[in-house]
Recover the amino acids of this structure.
């Protein structure tokens, strides 16, 4: 039973991580809803591949960190639907003759890369996860968090945390800035200050996410007002998500 449940858990976790990228990219690049599909997100080649592979490697890590026996079998079962999906997409668009085969065509390069690399990437995550088994060996827990907490983490927290962090990172990455910080302070003061504020918010939220994880993972340690702190952090991430992403997506 645990064997099946951890595969399902890894699949859901992987999907939520990938979906978090989808919502952020749609907002950041202002991609119309009719160009957002399960397989393609507008013309965001690189990020579509990155999001899928990141979700896949995390799923492989979860399986590797949890199962001491049957880890490779579980990994294959976990990976088959992913590889089969992208293989089908590749065949469909190739036979559909949307255009001649080209590595520069979104309809070919995205499914081709993900068909070829999803299994190796999942396997790599599985190997890394095997090395962390001693750190995640407490019973009735996944990633050191008791299993029943994931029932509310999935719908109310995971997507919100990942989406906000990805949004801020993409915002910093895509904002042009001169290498000379003095030049920026003099001639582009507003943009430079905005970047510092964004970095501070990103650092604060990452610290908050780490502290929230420690509260949930170290539940045997007595911490004053612990569950009030947990609730406060969950509400904080939900509010930040709605301000930065949620309301703007609704109005697109």
């Amino acid at each position: 039973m645990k064997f099946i449940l951890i595969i399902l858990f890894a699949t859901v976790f992987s999907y939520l991580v990938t979906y978090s990228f989808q919502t952020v990219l749609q907002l950041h690049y202002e991609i119309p809803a009719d160009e957002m599909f399960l397989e393609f997100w507008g013309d965001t080649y690189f990020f579509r591949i990155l999001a899928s592979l990141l979700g896949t490697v995390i799923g492989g890590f979860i399986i590797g960190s949890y199962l001491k026996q049957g880890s490779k079998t579980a990994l294959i079962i976990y990976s088959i639907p992913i590889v089969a999906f992208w293989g089908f997409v590749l065949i469909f668009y190739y036979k559909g003759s949307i255009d001649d085969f080209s590595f520069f065509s979104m309809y070919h390069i995205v499914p081709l890369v993900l068909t070829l690399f999803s299994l190796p990437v999942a396997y790599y995550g599985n190997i890394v996860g095997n090395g962390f088994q001693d750190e995640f060996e407490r019973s009735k827990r996944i990633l050191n968090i008791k299993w029943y907490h994931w029932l509310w983490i999935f719908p109310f927290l995971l997507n919100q945390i990942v989406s906000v962090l990805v949004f801020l990172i993409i915002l910093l990455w895509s904002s042009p800035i001169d290498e000379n910080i003095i030049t920026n302070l003099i001639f582009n003061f507003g943009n430079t200050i905005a970047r510092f504020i964004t970095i501070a918010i990103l650092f604060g939220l990452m610290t908050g996410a780490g502290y929230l994880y420690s509260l949930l993972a170290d539940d045997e340690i007595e911490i004053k007002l612990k569950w009030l702190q947990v609730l406060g952090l969950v509400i904080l991430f939900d509010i930040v998500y709605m301000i930065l992403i949620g309301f703007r997506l609704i109005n697109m």
Observations:
- The longest helix spans residues 189-217.
- Residues 145-250 form one domain.
